[in-house]
From TrEMBL, chain A:
Belongs to the BCKDHA family. This is 2-oxoisovalerate dehydrogenase subunit alpha. It is an enzyme of class 1 (oxidoreductase). One of its GO terms (molecular function) is metal ion binding. GO terms for biological process: branched-chain amino acid catabolic process. GO terms for cellular component: mitochondrial matrix. Its EC number is 1.2.4.4. Pfam families: E1_dh. The keyword Repeat does not apply. It comes from the Eukaryota. It catalyses: N(6)-[(R)-lipoyl]-L-lysyl-[protein] + 3-methyl-2-oxobutanoate + H(+) = N(6)-[(R)-S(8)-2-methylpropanoyldihydrolipoyl]-L-lysyl-[protein] + CO2.
TrEMBL record, chain B:
Keywords: Oxidoreductase. One of its GO terms (molecular function) is branched-chain 2-oxo acid dehydrogenase activity. This is 3-methyl-2-oxobutanoate dehydrogenase (2-methylpropanoyl-transferring). Its EC number is 1.2.4.4. It comes from the Eukaryota. Residues 1-131 form the Transketolase-like pyrimidine-binding domain. Its cofactor is thiamine diphosphate. GO terms for biological process: branched-chain amino acid catabolic process; response to nutrient. Pfam families: Transket_pyr, Transketolase_C. It catalyses: N(6)-[(R)-lipoyl]-L-lysyl-[protein] + 3-methyl-2-oxobutanoate + H(+) = N(6)-[(R)-S(8)-2-methylpropanoyldihydrolipoyl]-L-lysyl-[protein] + CO2. It comes from Muntiacus muntjak (Barking deer).
Length: 468, 228
C-alpha cells in the first residue's frame, strides 16, 4: 500500500555511523540541560563536531533518537518541532504586505544603499548592458522574421533581460542551467554565438539540436545549458537530481533552475522544492514572476504571496528581488550560489518583473491587457534603461556609444540571420537517429523506407532545401 | 545513505529527480513502489526521459536511468496493487520496457537495464517475490520417501518439477551428481542432518541453497529460505 513505511535500514545505518558523534552530542545535552534535543545551543555545537551533514541536521532527525521523558509536557510528535498553544488561531497568510522586494537601484538607475552596490568593474557592467541590448535586438529581428514567414515561431524576452543577465553573471561558467524557454539572455551572457541561436530557430544544418524542435528550444552542452523542452516545470525536479549528483561528486557546482510563476503551479514544481530541501541539494530556484502566464494574470494563478512565500513552507531560504534591477538579481544570485555550494541547501529567488512582449508569436496580448499597462513598464521601469542610466551617471556610456552599439549589434544580428537563412536543413535521415543510443532494426527499416519513398516521389518534396 | 535513500512521496518527483541525476552521467535507479502508481510520472517518462536524447540532438541524454517497479497481480492486490501498465509505455519510442519471467531472468535483465544507455523501465512481477520453490531435493534413508511425496505435491500444487536425488551413501556422498543439478541453477534443499556437510555446501553454493533440516527420527520439516 502507498504510505507503508519503507525499509528502516537507512535509519539503522545512520545511528551506527553517527554513534560516536551522538555520544558526544548526548554528553552535550546533559551539559546544556535541554530535554528536547540540543535546542538552539545544539547547532553551533554540532558544527564544532565538524560534520557538515550533521551540522545541517534537520531537527526532526535528531528528535527521532532522543529519549522520551514522561514527565515532560512538551510535544513528542515526530512530524513537527513546535510548542503547544491553547488558543485557537489560524495563521493569516500575508498577501497585503508580502515579502519585501530587494533592490539596489531605483527606477532611475541610482544606487539606493551604497553598501549594496556590488562595485562591479566597468568591463563587467558593460558586458551586462551589451548582453541585454544584443538580446533585445535579436528578439526584434527574429520576431519580425516569424511575422514574415521565415521562421515558424518565436518567443521574445522583452522586459526580462535583467533577470537573465544578472543571474547568469553571478554563476560560474560550469554551473548547470535548466531553463523554461524565456532565458535566452543566459546563453547570450555565456557567449553562445548568434549563428547558433539562428540555426536553432531556422532548424538548419548548423543547429546543435539537429533541427528537431520548435524555435527557441536552445541547448548547449559546452556552455552547460540543458536543452529546453516544451512541457512546463518538468525541468524542476530534474534540476534537483542534477544538483544532488553534483553534491555527491563534490563538484563545487550549483545548478540553477529557471521557471515562470505559472509553471510554479505545476506539480513538478512542488515536487522539486520538496526534494531539494529534503535531500539537501545545492540548487538555486529562480522564478521569473512576470505577471502573466500567456493570458492568465497572477491574480488567477495563485492566492498566496507569490512564489517566494512558498519557499519557507518547504524549508527553503527565499528572497524576492526586483527583477528589473540587474544588480539586485546579481547580488541575490551570487549570495545564493555561495551558500548553496557551501551548505548544500536550496535557495529560492523570486524575481519580480514584467513581460513586456506577447507570450509568443501565437499570442496577441492586447486581448487581455491594456496598451497603457505595457507602455508603463516599457518606458518607466525597464532593466535596460535603468542600467543605462547607471552607466551614464558613471561616465561609462554615452549617447554616441549607444548609437554606435545599436548599429553594430544590429549589423551582427542581421549578418547571422542572413547566413542562417541561406543554409540547408538537416538530412532527413536524422529523423530516425538518437531515438535510442543505437538505432534499432525497425527504425532502420523506416529510415530505408523513407529513402526509397524519396527516390520515387522526391520531386514532390522540397529536397533542395535539405542536406543530401 | 547518500547512495540508497528515501525520497518524499512523489512519483513525478522521483522520476524527474532520477532523470536529472542521469543527465549528469551518474547512474540512477528509481523505484516506484507499485506499477499502479507510475502514472503521476507518465509525463516525465514519456515527454522527458524518452525524448531527452532525440530532442537535444544527442547533446544530452538520460540513458543511465532505470526505473524499477513491482508489477502484476498476486491475487489479493485488487485495483491498485495488481496492474500491468506496460502497454501504456509500449507506444513510446525512446524508452525500453522489460518484464522478466523468473528470478534468474530478473537478475540479468535488471543488470542489463542498468547498463543500457537508454532509459529503461523494469517491471518486476510481484508473483516472483514469493518464497523460493524447491527444485532439487536430495536425501537419504527414509526421508527419500517423504521427499518423493513432497515432489509430487510440488508438481500438483505449485506446478514445479523437482529433481529427487537419493544419496544412498552419506560419506563419501555423490558431490558430482548434486553439483551437476545445482549448476543448472536449481536451488536445492539439503536432506541430511550432518551440519558439516551442510556448511561446506553452503559456502560453495550460498546463493542457491535453501535450508532443509531433517532429523533421523522425525518427518521432514521444510524450511524455505527467502531468496535474495
Amino acid at each position: 500500500m502507498k504510505g507503508q513505511p519503507r525499509s528502516r535500514r537507512g535509519e539503522g545505518r545512520i545511528s551506527e555511523r553517527w554513534s560516536v558523534k551522538m555520544a558526544m552530542a548526548a554528553a552535550a545535552v546533559k551539559f546544556w540541560g535541554s530535554s528536547r534535543g540540543l535546542g538552539r545551543a545544539g547547532l553551533p555545537l554540532l558544527r564544532l563536531l565538524g560534520a557538515r551533514g550533521l551540522a545541517r541536521s534537520h531537527p526532526h532527525r535528531w528528535q527521532r533518537q532522543q529519549h522520551f521523558s514522561s514527565l515532560d509536557d512538551k510535544p513528542q510528535f515526530p512530524g513537527a518541532s513546535a510548542e503547544f498553544i491553547d488558543k485557537l488561531e489560524f495563521i493569516q497568510p500575508n498577501v497585503i504586505s508580502g515579502i519585501p522586494i530587494y533592490r539596489v537601484m531605483d527606477r532611475q538607475g541610482q544606487i539606493i544603499n551604497p553598501s549594496e552596490d556590488p562595485h562591479l568593474p566597468q568591463e563587467k557592467v558593460l558586458k551586462f548592458y551589451k548582453s541585454m541590448t544584443l538580446l533585445n535586438t535579436m528578439d526584434r529581428i527574429l520576431y519580425e522574421s516569424q511575422r514574415q514567414g521565415r521562421i515558424s515561431f518565436y518567443m521574445t524576452n522583452y522586459g526580462e533581460e535583467g533577470t537573465h543577465v544578472g543571474s547568469a553573471a553571478a554563476l560560474d561558467n560550469t554551473d548547470l542551467v535548466f531553463g523554461q524557454y524565456r532565458e535566452a539572455g543566459v546563453l547570450i551572457y555565456r557567449d553562445y554565438p548568434l549563428e547558433l541561436f539562428m540555426a536553432q530557430c531556422y532548424g538548419n544544418v548548423s543547429d546543435l539540436g539537429k533541427g528537431r524542435q520548435m524555435p527557441v528550444h536552445y541547448g548547449c552542452r559546452e556552455r552547460h545549458f540543458v536543452t529546453i523542452s516544451s512541457p512546463l516545470a518538468t525541468q524542476i525536479p530534474q534540476a534537483v537530481g542534477a544538483a544532488y549528483a553534483a553534491k555527491r561528486a563534490n563538484a563545487n557546482r550549483v545548478v540553477i533552475c529557471y521557471f515562470g510563476e505559472g509553471a510554479a503551479s505545476e506539480g513538478d514544481a512542488h515536487a522539486g522544492f520538496n526534494f531539494a530541501a529534503t535531500l539537501e541539494c545545492p540548487i538555486i530556484f529562480f522564478c521569473r514572476n512576470n505577471g502573466y502566464a500567456i493570458s492568465t494574470p497572477t491574480s488567477e494563478q495563485y492566492r498566496g504571496d507569490g512564489i517566494a512565500a512558498r519557499g519557507p513552507g518547504y524549508g527553503i531560504l527565499s528572497i524576492r528581488v526586483d527583477g528589473n534591477d540587474v544588480f539586485a538579481v546579481y547580488n541575490a544570485t551570487k549570495e545564493a550560489r555561495r551558500r548553496a555550494v557551501a551548505e548544500n541547501q536550496p535557495f529560492l529567488i523570486e524575481a519580480m518583473t514584467y513581460r513586456i512582449g506577447h507570450h509568443s508569436t501565437s499570442d496577441d496580448s492586447s486581448a487581455y491587457r491594456s496598451v497603457d499597462e505595457v507602455n508603463y513598464w516599457d518606458k518607466q521601469d525597464h532593466p535596460i534603461s535603468r542600467l543605462r542610466h547607471y552607466l551614464q551617471s558613471r561616465g561609462w556610456w554615452d549617447d554616441e556609444q549607444e548609437k554606435a552599439w545599436r548599429k553594430q549589434s544590429r549589423k551582427k544580428v542581421m549578418e547571422a540571420f542572413e547566413q542562417a537563412e541561406r543554409k540547408l536543413k538537416p538530412n532527413p535521415n536524422l529523423i530516425f537517429s538518437d531515438v535510442y543510443q543505437e538505432m534499432p532494426a525497425q527504425l532502420r527499416k523506416q529510415q530505408e523506407s523513407l529513402a526509397r519513398h524519396l527516390q520515387t516521389y522526391g520531386e514532390h518534396y522540397p529536397l533542395d532545401h535539405f542536406e543530401k | 545513505k547518500d547512495r540508497v535513500f528515501n525520497t518524499p512521496l512523489c512519483e513525478q518527483g522521483i522520476v524527474g529527480f532520477g532523470i536529472g541525476i542521469a543527465v549528469t552521467g551518474a547512474t540512477a535507479i528509481a523505484e516506484i513502489q507499485f506499477a499502479d502508481y507510475i502514472f503521476p510520472a507518465f509525463d516525465q517518462i514519456v515527454n522527458e526521459a524518452a525524448k531527452y536524447r532525440y530532442r537535444s540532438g544527442d547533446l544530452f541524454n538520460c540513458g543511465s536511468l532505470t526505473i524499477r517497479s513491482p508489477w502484476g497481480c498476486v491475487g489479493h492486490g485488487a485495483l491498485y496493487h495488481s496492474q500491468s501498465p506496460e502497454a501504456f509505455f509500449a507506444h513510446c519510442p525512446g524508452i525500453k520496457v522489460v518484464v522478466p519471467r523468473s528470478p534468474f531472468q530478473a537478475k540479468g535483465l535488471l543488470l542489463s537495464c542498468i547498463e543500457d544507455k537508454n532509459p529503461c523501465i523494469f517491471f518486476e512481477p510481484k508473483i516472483l517475490y514469493r518464497a523460493a520453490v524447491i527444485l532439487c531435493l536430495f536425501s537419504s534413508f527414509f526421508q527419500v520417501h517423504v521427499i518423493r511425496e513432497v515432489a509430487t505435491m510440488a508438481q500438483e500444487k505449485l506446478g514445479v518439477s523437482c529433481e529427487v536425488i537419493d544419496l544412498r551413501t552419506i560419506i563419501p556422498w555423490d558431490v558430482d551428481t548434486v553439483c551437476k543439478t545445482v549448476t543448472c541453477q536449481a536451488p536445492l534443499s539439503m536432506g541430511f542432518s550432518r551440519r558439516e556437510y551442510w556448511k561446506c555446501f553452503l559456502q560453495a553454493f550460498s546463493s542457491h541453497v535453501r535450508h532443509c533440516f531433517l532429523s533421523n527420527s522425525q518427518c521432514s520439516k521444510l524450511w524455505l529460505n527467502r531468496g535474495r
